[in-house]
Design goal:
With 225 residues, the protein is mostly helical. Helices cover 42% and strands 7% of the residues. Strands 1-2 form a two-stranded parallel ribbon. Strands 3-4 form a two-stranded parallel sheet.
Length: 225
Amino acid sequence: MMRAWENRPDTVVVDEPLYAAYLARTGIDHPGREEVLAAQPTDLDEAVTELHARLPDGVSVHYAKHMAHHVDIGSDVEWTTAFRNVLLIRDPAEVVASYVRSREACEPEDIGLLQQQWLLEQWDDAGLDVPVVDSGDFLRDPETHLRWFCDWLEIPFYASMLSWPAGPRDSDGVWAPYWYDAVLASTGFEPHRPRVVELSPHDAAVAEACRPAYDALRERSLRLV
């Protein structure tokens, strides 16, 4: 999704701007931890302030890719209401399988679904319109979904959002070598394929602990296909 938005002529992309603040706050060990801490603000307020930076000339759209687990449940998320928010969800077994390819340890709070459910509750209470899209549905028809999002945002759709050259981008976080193998190799959205994942008993339990949150979010997801 980040590649699609960056391939627009009017858009600047920011990759996981709260990552260093999350690592500093939690002390959690991630691949490339020290590189991330050195590359971004470790203070959450400073990181959020940077999200309001003036856009470059010729740019009218600011796209920030966040990971929901970078936000603590129960924290003050009033700052998020200044933005148009979208939740992208994925079956928890698939999320866990992807996560443990780069980091051995995994707990329910590491994969973001619990935080996504909580964030949606906060936005509901604030009366905000926040679409939820399931990655499986999106991959069945990326163009229909991207056109819907552009209409919702009242911006033009560009066919360039559907394909892009392989390789790294200057906007990629310094963590890209640890997490982005598939992204770096991609040239577009791969067709949706149901996945059969094999998880350890612990990782399977993590996925199942997050499944009620996923199911609740799934009930709210766009049904465009």
